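anyone seen this seq b4? input:
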Amino acid sequence: MGKRVALVLAGCGVFDGSEIHEASAALVHLSRGGAEVKIFAPNIEQRDVVNHLKGSPAEEKRNVLVESARLARGNIQDLAELKASEFDAIIFPGGFGVAKNLCSWAVDGKNCTVNEHVNSTLQAFHSAKKPIGLCCISPVLAAKVFPGCEVTIGQDKNIDGRFPDAETAAAIAELGCKHICKNVNESHVDKANKIVTTCAFMCKAPLHEIFDGIGTMVQEVLKLA
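predicted toks r here
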């Protein structure tokens, strides 16, 4: 029987929700690994809505669960209904929605608050010693909730202009966590906390390299499950 994995989304679209390619890559690799996946998102209003064509704010309101349902092909549940006891692992794709809707990192940085259901879900999986996979900006959730853990968002320096958000690594360190430098096609496994992270679109890289990096994260999560 395949591993039971929960996937948590933060909306639909890189600038105000989940990064679509990351969510799809995670689902493809989970499918290839024989996992049984259920998708969740918090039933809350988005912090903002961004016109993805213009890259500018839109004067409208959207719901994170409703927008995430687009990526889930309608098969999705409220995060408040997730029970860690029913799963072997959990994975969070990235996208600005993580930093806007699942927590307030986009506004408050290391002083952010984490959505109550996201926090309780992470704590439940961690307490049960079940693996947690995070990619792109999502590792900041672990850094905020689990002081002392190890994560990667890629590199801590903007090497050749490929890591424009490298300063995030310093903020993670200021939270008492250890940032591990990794390439885009790699992931890092914090064995003590069963947290697996990969940088994905935190690195400017070809899509296939990002896809492969997410694949290593998924494989390590399934190994730990």
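The chain has eight helices and eleven strands. Residues 4-139+184-224 form a domain with the Rossmann fold fold (CATH 3.40.50.880). kinda curious what u guys think
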